[in-house]
């Protein structure tokens, strides 16, 4: 059996996706082996326990055997009905937990087998694929080695369970594609950004406008064809209306890469530490913001909070001017060391004072107010900084009712 993992690169022009084929790697595995250990292109291979020699089942698998009454062969899977961890009282909820029969009366679950392989700072990010079972039932679990802490005195490491997509697809920038063969055929996933992270979302490659994930319902993916701009929603492209990232409306973008366009208007004359926004925008739709309308004299925990919904577009990147005379991308460390991003303590002395937290990539800036009420505990404290206004780069209020 030959398994092909195909990675394509889609140049992410704003949210415009321009197709470029990147590379193909093929991984050969013997069909007679029931457990295969391999990783996506470019990852290190991790050794796993010896597999069973049962053939791969061709029919729909049935339920696994009972560990206490079934006839078990080495490598076959069985189940036990067990109470939830930590529950020692009568009436605990019972769950079915899978075990692999290792021979000589020994049963081990997938996690225990995975942890027989060392997970350390040296092989952080390595992956395991564990497949066990027989012709009646088979299951596969995927793991990645995670290291938590500073990598020195206080770090811990463990094999963390992941899904098939995370196993086959390494973390990639928004706009890139990962394709791999599974038991259900070729699977295609697009990397999209949201909440400061990237996610893999499944799509069907059936549109000239590029991938539009069927599970994606956030209205943030755009594509351009000629003079028209389209927006992806739940697997379908439609003409974009309302707010559109400016890179799709600016004719200067047509002949520039994302990186070239983003820095097009950074100031020529700057001082070390100066901050400036790039031109690329990301848009968010129907965002629910919680803000507070009260002050220290009428701080009512029930009437203060208000909700408002906005569509907004914000710069994707911010840059800092460095000592070597160049602009580079702003980092989390830059913001953590910048007093403008630190909230002052809310005390009785500065009650009702307001301060501004600057915008961050894809997020609008916010105005906070120190709400202090000595007679009322607000969210567990006498004084709390609460959002009282928003600073929008480009926004429209949404009426959901």
Describe, in plain words, how this protein is organized in 3D.
The protein is mostly beta strands and 401 residues long. Helices cover 5% and strands 41% of the residues. The chain is built from four helices and 24 strands. It has helices at residues 110-114, 164-168, 258-262, 332-336, and strands at 2-13, 16-28, 65-66, 77-83, 94-103, 106-108, 127-133, 138-148, 156-162, 177-182, 185-194, 197-202, 222-225, 228-233, 236-239, 275-277, 281-292, 305-315, 318-321, 327-329, 354-357, 365-372, 383-391, 394-397. The strands form seven sheets. It has a five-stranded antiparallel beta sheet with strand order 2-1-10-11-12. Strands 3-4-5-6 form a four-stranded mixed beta sheet. It has a three-stranded antiparallel beta sheet with strand order 7-8-9. A hairpin with a 2-residue loop joins strand 11 and strand 12. The longest helix has 5 residues, at 110-114. The chain is globular and about 75 Å long.
Descriptive key words:
mainly beta; 5-stranded antiparallel β-sheet; 4 helices; 24 strands; 4-stranded mixed β-sheet; 401 residues
Quick structural gist:
The protein has helices spanning 110-114, 164-168, 258-262, 332-336, and strands spanning 2-13, 16-28, 65-66, 77-83, 94-103, 106-108, 127-133, 138-148, 156-162, 177-182, 185-194, 197-202, 222-225, 228-233, 236-239, 275-277, 281-292, 305-315, 318-321, 327-329, 354-357, 365-372, 383-391, 394-397. With 401 residues, it is mainly beta.
């Amino acid at each position: 059996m030959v398994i092909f993992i195909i990675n394509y690169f889609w140049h992410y022009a704003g949210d415009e996706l321009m197709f470029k084929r990147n590379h193909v790697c093929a991984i050969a595995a013997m069909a007679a082996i029931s457990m295969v250990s391999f990783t996506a292109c470019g990852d290190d291979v991790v050794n796993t326990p010896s597999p069973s020699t049962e053939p791969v089942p061709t029919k729909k698998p049935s339920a696994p055997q009972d560990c206490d009454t079934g006839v078990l062969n080495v490598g076959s899977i069985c189940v036990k009905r067990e109470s939830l961890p930590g529950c020692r009282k009568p009436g605990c909820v019972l769950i079915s937990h899978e075990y692999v029969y290792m021979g000589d009366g020994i049963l081990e679950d997938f996690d225990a087998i995975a942890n027989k392989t060392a997970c350390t700072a040296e092989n952080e990010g390595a992956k395991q694929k564990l497949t066990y079972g027989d012709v009646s039932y088979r299951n596969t679990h995927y793991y990645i080695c995670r290291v938590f802490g500073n990598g020195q005195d206080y770090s811990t490491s463990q094999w963390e369970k992941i899904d098939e997509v995370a196993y086959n697809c390494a973390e990639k920038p928004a706009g890139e594609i990962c394709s791999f063969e599974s038991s259900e055929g070729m699977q295609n996933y697009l990397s999209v950004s949201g909440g400061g992270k990237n996610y893999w979302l499944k799509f069907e490659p059936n549109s000239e406008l590029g991938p539009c994930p069927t599970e994606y319902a956030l209205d943030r993916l755009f594509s351009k064809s000629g003079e028209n701009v389209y927006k992806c929603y739940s697997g379908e492209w439609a003409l974009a209306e309302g707010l559109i990232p400016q890179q799709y409306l600016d004719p200067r973008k047509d002949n520039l890469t994302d990186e070239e366009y983003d820095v097009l208007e950074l100031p020529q004359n700057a001082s070390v530490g100066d901050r400036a926004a790039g031109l690329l925008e990301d848009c968010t739709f129907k965002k629910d913001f919680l803000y507070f309308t009260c002050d220290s004299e009428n701080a009512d925990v029930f009437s203060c909070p208000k909700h408002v919904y906005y569509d907004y577009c914000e710069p994707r990147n911010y840059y800092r001017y460095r000592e070597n005379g160049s602009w580079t991308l702003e980092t989390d460390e830059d913001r953590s060391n910048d007093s403008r991003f630190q909230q002052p303590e809310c005390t009785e002395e500065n009650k009702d004072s307001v301060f501004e937290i600057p915008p961050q990539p894809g997020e609008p800036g916010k105005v906070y107010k120190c709400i202090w009420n000595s007679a009322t505990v607000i969210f567990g404290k006498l004084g709390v900084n609460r959002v009282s206004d928003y600073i929008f780069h480009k926004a429209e209020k949404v009426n959901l009712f």
